[in-house]
């Protein structure tokens, strides 16, 4: 088991921009759009933030080796009691889509090009996190405070399945991720439990086909979510506190984090009862229990990042574990970093904190 007494300084990130949003509240989620922008350099991208009942969309560009950030769209929910906890990008065909969810249990689905809202996805509890499958970009998983995980066709606004039953989460589900192929969902909750669920039940596959037919068909109107009562994998030994961040790193490797600052990289196998833990890291010093602090992963460069209470950021190179993390600090970053997101190539890292600040870090390639 490692501690944070040493610093592994391999990846040299420099802070390029600091943006402070006007609401002055905690930004819970930041998400980078991985789709390339037409007529732009390969380093240009969109990213979004959500805080209170607001969603902001920014454009990052590089011209003549100089980067700039511009706020291009913003949305304010009509319900002033809403508080967005998460936002994610996906594609419906060739259309760029941004989805955001939170306290009121409504997933807002936004067509960025036309600046319009599509049909909302309604839950019976607060939605803590959402995730889209890269290979099936209309497939969305959501974690809910009512102890359940849901699978949606977000384009059709049809709930395909709900995962709830006797051998599952016994408290609110904080975190969720769906793998690249859309075949498995991993979830973590307030009960310290990690579950892996399958999306390949016959009834779910049938609902997926119905969703593609569209709402004009009788089968669509009469369809109902398939109830899944048992996960295909279940562990209450990986973590001893709230599991507030889970991520698929590859087809069978999952990264999970709990509120007591324990991070696990483990291998998932349906045939095995216990997870195969590849790496486990625990902060050595005593610290407050804080949840809803989420991991950032760059799969292509095999980097893992997590924000800390003092505003610093830990970055691990997952190919050199158990080497110690590189620590990023900035004199303006003094409050807890809630969420981090990498660009696809891992060259840019964006973080958001409790003071409505956004920090954009760029890898120095020189």
UniProtKB/TrEMBL annotation:
- Entries under Gene3D superfamilies matching the protein: YVTN repeat-like/Quinoprotein amine dehydrogenase
Q: Where are the WD repeats?
A: 166-207
Answer yes or no on keyword rRNA-binding.
no
Q: Keywords on this record?
A: Repeat, Transcription, Transcription regulation, WD repeat
Statement: the UniProt record of this protein carries the keyword Thylakoid: no
Q: Name one Pfam family in it.
A: WD40
Q: Which chain regions cross the lipid bilayer?
A: none
Entry-linked InterPro entries: PcG_WD-repeat (IPR051243), WD40/YVTN_repeat-like_dom_sf (IPR015943), WD40_repeat_dom_sf (IPR036322), WD40_rpt (IPR001680)
Q: From which residue to which does the signal peptide run?
A: none
- What PANTHER family does UniProt report for this protein, alphabetically? POLYCOMB PROTEIN
Q: Which family does it belong to?
A: Belongs to the WD repeat ESC family.
Put simply, this protein is called Uncharacterized protein
Q: Which organism is it from?
A: Rotaria sordida
